[in-house]
Design a protein that fits this description.
Shape: globular
Order of helices and strands: HEEHEEEEEEE
Number of domains: 1
Strand content: 25-35%
Number of strands: 9
Structural class: alpha+beta
Radius of gyration: 22 Å
Number of helices: 2
Strand order of the largest sheet: 1-2-3
Helix content: 10-25%
Distance between the termini: 69 Å
Largest sheet: 3 strands, antiparallel
């Protein structure tokens, strides 16, 4: 003989589901705070990675493939190629974000580098130096951050070359990289840069 679930069990299950929903609603926050919500591909992020600082658990670091520094969908590309992304602009794709309150709020730093985010979508634009919200110091080294992030917070090596938390800590961010070009489409592996 099968017994019907008791009212108490059903009530408890419902209470847990409602509590989980309320908790999620109270803790959700936008990570990619520099990205405009209505512009494609600038509002496109994917492949997130998150790291928590073991010595300061309220500190989180995240990385994504972030198109925030790309030109808003160029009409010429959309009409002729069926895409919004010109892959030969030299604009980086690796975004970084920081939270110091367990993910309740996030910052997306502004750096200087190669961008075409402020170009009008009426014509193709190869870019210029300006404010960026992806990883810095790539353009200056003739490189492009190419996404697929991996992030970690870990110890710093000491003068003996050994890693120890007593030496301090830092953020480690790994991503694909390619040679800077505004003429050749980004590709991986890159036929020019093999590092």
């Amino acid at each position: 003989m099968r017994k019907k679930p008791s009212v108490a069990l059903l009530s408890a299950t419902t209470a847990v589901l409602i509590s989980a929903t309320v908790a999620f609603a109270q803790t959700s926050s936008r990570v990619t705070v520099a990205s405009p919500s209505g512009n494609t591909p600038q509002n496109h992020q994917n492949e997130p990675a998150v790291a928590i600082d073991a010595l300061s658990p309220k500190t989180l670091v995240a990385g994504t493939n972030d198109f925030v520094d790309q030109e808003a969908c160029p009409q010429q590309l959309a009409v002729n190629n069926g895409t919004c992304l010109d892959r030969a602009t030299g604009v980086g794709l690796s975004g970084d974000y920081f939270s110091f309150d367990s993910g309740r709020s996030w910052i997306q730093p502004t750096y200087t580098g190669w961008t075409n985010a402020d170009c009008p979508p009426t014509t193709l634009c190869k870019g210029h130096v300006g404010p960026i919200h992806t990883l810095p110091w790539y353009y200056e080294n003739q490189l492009v951050s190419f996404g697929d992030p991996a992030v970690a917070v870990g110890p710093i090596p000491g003068s003996n070359g050994r890693f120890a938390w007593s030496n301090g800590q830092r953020v480690y961010y790994a991503n694909l990289t390619t040679a800077f070009s505004t003429a050749v489409e980004l590709s991986f592996p890159n036929p020019v840069f093999h590092g």
